[in-house]
Design a protein that fits this description.
Elements lengths: L15 H18 L37 E3 L10 E3 L7 H12 L25 E6 L4 E6 L6 E5 L18 E7 L2 E7 L19 E10 L2 E9 L8 E10 L14 H5 L11
Antiparallel strand pairs: 1-10, 2-10, 3-4, 4-5, 6-7, 7-8, 8-9, 9-10
Length: about 280
């Protein structure tokens, strides 16, 4: 397990030098073993897992079965080479490979997520804080809420609308999401990203050409299988895919978490000479 780099800390216990040492240790461990770490952990599911629940209309239920109880407990995958399913290596364009290497070598010190800026795309599902999926069939909308990731939410429109025309779409951190059901799987198509976020903590870049397709399948009560296809012709030579499972905690309740409160990463970070603040 690689160490977690805390974004906030008690001022009395905080040591920037220690944080730098942990950051460098994380990079070393990731480069050797591509290890993943979890900041929250759901209880171990029973060996005989109940089937995936359904809503009254027969649609898969991706959320709670008991009112106000339960959340999904994501695992932190710091480098997505650990969960890459296709192809065998990240198909970087040369400039993207160089930038990712520079960011990783820095210990991810300029990671926008560390400065309380929103993660986008699959990183929402690998930020190690609880998240919930709220299905609103009458409103034809799904809302995903995240305790971490700067305490944000995302809207997925389920009313059959297309994406707005590219020339009218304002790039945003989370992009524009439209969803549909393919059998038991929720498929979300996302475009319209700005270029402010990193794909993972290892520093993989993306451009505004990023087209993301996500697939959410609840295979049993305790398991949400997540797949993502990253198609960004501005940064990569071909699409690439990742996949992993997220575990349900039936007793969990999302709490208030304010990343900006006492953010020691942002307060103590000093620019290196000749380096931009967010390369």
């Amino acid at each position: 397990m690689s160490p977690i780099i805390a974004l906030t800390a008690n001022p009395a216990a905080y040591s920037f030098a220690a944080m730098r040492r942990r950051a460098l240790a994380f990079i070393l461990i990731c480069s050797i073993a591509a290890a993943a770490a979890a900041q929250i952990r759901a209880p171990r599911p029973p060996s005989n897992r109940p089937p995936a629940p359904k809503l009254e209309d027969g649609t898969p239920n991706l959320g709670s079965t008991i009112p106000n109880k339960g959340y999904w407990a994501p695992t932190q995958y710091q480098d997505y080479t650990a969960i890459l399913t296709e192809p065998k290596e990240i198909p970087y364009q040369p400039w993207a490979a160089a930038l990712a290497a520079e960011r990783k070598a820095s210990g991810s010190l300029y990671d926008p997520n560390g400065l309380c800026l929103p993660p986008g795309g699959p990183r929402l599902m690998t930020t190690p804080y609880p998240m919930e999926i709220l299905q609103m069939p009458h409103q034809k909308r799904i809302v995903m809420i995240y305790e971490g990731a700067t305490h944000i939410w995302r809207n997925i429109y389920m009313d059959g609308r297309p994406h707005p025309p590219a020339e009218t779409l304002t790039p945003t951190w989370l992009g524009h999401s439209v969803g549909r059901w393919e059998g038991e799987t929720l498929v979300i198509d996302v475009v319209g990203f700005n270029e402010g976020s990193w794909i993972d903590m290892g520093g993989k870049p993306h451009t505004s050409k990023l087209h993301l397709v996500e697939r959410f399948t609840r295979t049993d009560l305790f398991t949400l299988h997540y797949e993502a296809t990253i198609d960004d012709p501005g940064a990569y030579t071909a699409p690439w895919k990742l996949a992993f499972d997220v575990t349900w905690d039936p007793d969990g309740e999302i709490q208030e978490y304010i990343c900006q409160e006492n953010n020691r990463w942002g307060n103590r970070l000093a620019d290196q000479p000749g380096k931009p603040a967010n390369p």
